[in-house]
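Our consortium's second objective concerns turning raw sequence data into structural hypotheses that experimental partners can test. To show how far this objective has progressed, the report includes one record in full. It was chosen at random from the queue rather than selected for favorable results. The single chain below, 454 residues long, was entered without modification.
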Amino acid sequence: MAGSFLAYEEPSSNRPDPGPIIVGIIYGMPLADILLEIWQETFLAIGYIGLILIIFEGGLTSRMDLLKQNFFLSMLAAATGVLFPIGLSYLLLYLGFGYGAVETFIIGAALSTTSLGTTFAVIGGASKDIDLSQTRVGTVLVSAAVIDDVSGLVMSSVIHDLGSISGGGDVNLGWLIGRPILASFLMAALTPLICKYIVAPLFRRYIEHHFARFDHLSNVVLMVLILCAFISIAAYAGTSVLFGAFLAGSFLTYLPSKHPEGPFVVYSREHGEQNDDKSPTFVHTFEKYFSDVQKYLMEPLFFASIGFAIPFIDLWTGTAIWHGIVVVGVWIPLWDILTKPKVDGPSSSLSEVLPSAGLLGFAMVARGEIGLLIVEIGYNSTPYVSDAGFHTAVWAILLNTIIGPMVVGLLIKFRGKAIGNGHWGIQSGENNGGHEKSQPEHDQALEEGQVPMQ
């Protein structure tokens, strides 16, 4: 049974497969508890590595020039995705069902975060009709999801220490909230500066011409070193490890020189492999050596780990179903879609904008691992979240994580070409939408200093 879910075929659209989540529920502690606890912890660790690789690939392939151009809209989308679910939770749970104020805040915080893993799985598994990573709406989605991840880290830290505060513990709330925000801002600001003025000039002058001799081997070594360095710095500084992985991918895209004679300026992976003075790009190396194991092993284990954390049997009570599905599970994504900033422009008609707006809204609906983490912290570490509140939150998170990406898959399947060719689709003059031919143009935008400010 596990094989039928985990060893899935190449998807025809960009829907993340819900099969691994079902496998996690069945084989993990929530239902049959077939796997030993040590095996569940092992799969959880492997799945988290897969999550880091998903985010790292997103950084490698993201359009940095578009991230900068649409930074304000990304901030608006992220703020909307955080504030409105919390506000709606207070309207429904606090005023409607009599939940406690702090309990409602914890549930609303869990429902306000965007799953980075699901977001990048949506982007990385897009159909052949559209490369979401090269579109304006995809770029807004990426940056808004990264910002939401940082806000989710802040809220999880605050909620974790609510137990200490309620017990009279001495907690510096200002530093607790400010540390991840300050660390994230400094990493986002210093990374492009250090790369552009220190690391990139040294790499281009003394190192990159040696890469043509070793091709993928030298790329793999550098990618592992940079990724480990960034996630270590992020963890030590107190910000999100996933944010560090995204910055590591963005960092690597800027390192190589951009002139036509540069070893990394190639038209395809074969061009870099077959010419003695050329080297495949970092994206080519990732696709050749990491993409398959990530897609068919680590990514399914990541989604299965979400299933490990779902208390499946306890969800099937009348109150939990009513509150979790009919009320919160339905209204949170609908309200999120209706209030999401419309990706409109002066030259766009309503029919052209709606598919892109729907894609942005539904893709940010998935809560996934971060939402479950927040509500579990509130449930296990504080006295505020009741059993009913926990089950309500889990129902809503589960529905959002499954339904949101599935709707995105349908949107891209039927309206993918319209999105890609529209005002918020693939932008001409900057990138042609393919990793092979467009990499030099993509890097040229970075050369001109167009880097994201997270």
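The partners drew two points from this record. The mean pLDDT is 75. The chain has one domain: 2-447. Both points have been shared with the crystallography group to help prioritize constructs.
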